[in-house]
Amino acid sequence: MANTIIESARRSGRTLLSEVESKQVLEEAGISTTRARLAATRDEAVRYATEIGFPVVMKIISPDISHKSDVGGVALNLADATAVGAAFVEMLRRVGAAQPAALIEGVSVQTMAKPGTEVIIGMTKDPQFGPVLMFGLGGVMVEVLKDVAFRIVPITDRDANQMIHDIKGFPVLAGFRGQAPADIGALKALLMQLSGFVAAHPEIEELDLNPVFAYDDGAIAVDARIVLSPA
Ligand code: ADP
Ligand code: MG
Question: Phi and psi for 113 in degrees, rounded to 5?
Answer without folding.
Answer: -75, 150
